[in-house]
Hints:
There is one protein chain. The protein is mainly beta. Helix content is 10%, strand content 42%. The protein has helices at residues 2-12, 69-74, 294-301, 382-398; strands at residues 17-19, 29-31, 36-41, 46-51, 65-66, 82-90, 95-102, 107-114, 118-121, 128-133, 143-144, 148-149, 157-161, 164-170, 177-183, 190-199, 204-206, 213-219, 222-228, 233-238, 247-249, 251-255, 262-272, 275-284, 289-293, 321-323, 328-333, 338-345, 350-357. The strands form 7 sheets. Strands 13, 14, 15, 16, 17 and 21 form a 6-stranded mixed sheet that branches. β2 (29-31) and β3 form a beta hairpin.
Amino acid sequence: xxxxxxxxxxxxxxxxxxxxxxxxxxxxxxxxxxxxxxxxxxxxxxxxxxxxxxxxxxxxxxxxxxxxxxxxxxxxxxxxxxxxxxxxxxxxxxxxxxxxxxxxxxxxxxxxxxxxxxxxxxxxxxxxxxxxxxxxxxxxxxxxxxxxxxxxxxxxxxxxxxxxxxxxxxxxxxxxxxxxxxxxxxxxxxxxxxxxxxxxxxxxxxxxxxxxxxxxxxxxxxxxxxxxxxxxxxxxxxxxxxxxxxxxxxxxxxxxxxxxxxxxxxxxxxxxxxxxxxxxxxxxxxxxxxxxxxxxxxxxxxxxxxxxxxxxxxxxxxxxxxxxxxxxxxxxxxxxxxxxxxxxxxxxxxxxxxxxxxxxxxxxxxxxxxxxxxxxxxxxxxxxxxxxxxxxxxxxxxxxxxxxxxxxx
Length: 409
């Protein structure tokens, strides 16, 4: 009887109590409620829900300045070379979880990193949780550019919202670009929607290339998925259209530049002069980051969308700002005031885990400017004293240089 029950559960994609020891790969992470960490395994085409132990401490205002993340994590796996697969912050704890693959076999590993520059490996063999199989995952042996398995794109992004996992990636269907909705605790409810878009830069309706980064926004009083694709169309989709078996076309509202792969997208808010505004931060592998006001998306929602060619290099559809976040591979909300990010510092070729204030999205110690010189003084310049020095003082403290704060004058 037990064997029959397990077989039925697997066929339906139902969860079963299991150790997470069967994790064969890690591509994306997401935190759910009550310390549950979701881990996607593209080789097995499964999502694992791992129940984490309560954090050892509850730090307030954690600041990350891990400038040698590669060495820190490599030391945990016998000196093997590591590649970061994903990173998420555990809400309200100051802990950051980093998934890597290491060695010639690309063995998966998961680490909890804290602001005191310590890393603790999560014992996947001892972790308890439940798992769910992803329906209609790619099954062939096709490879992109001869060495990247198509199956490794089964999950390209994953986000938690209101009791559901939203899982973007590929399926084995002709219309391969797919969005899955999976309820948690896992049960038989798993919807699959195929998505097509018009890509203005390519002048093409696209049904295969998957969403690479996504988040959510409320537009016109309704919840929407906001998705970024390679090369970089930005698309909005009402959540109520993402139904099992549906084939839909997302509305292309922006073209943000060619020759780029989006790396991550998070929603956040900023309060200035008593007014709170909602934004999305889109970080990119091949371009600077985009600060996208939700008000811009709302205005675009009411327009016709992009339905004709956009010449390479043109930014179209949205009025977006830029943030100096080159080299950022993964981004998350650390707390209300700060992001945390895994980045490759391009000047020093160093893999880093650092936090950064949301107001400027900028680290002072990345630059040698006029302000860095010992004999620079704010004296006599009212503008500098009012607008620049207070922010610089905060940055110097957060980045570990409180001794360089200049005296008030």
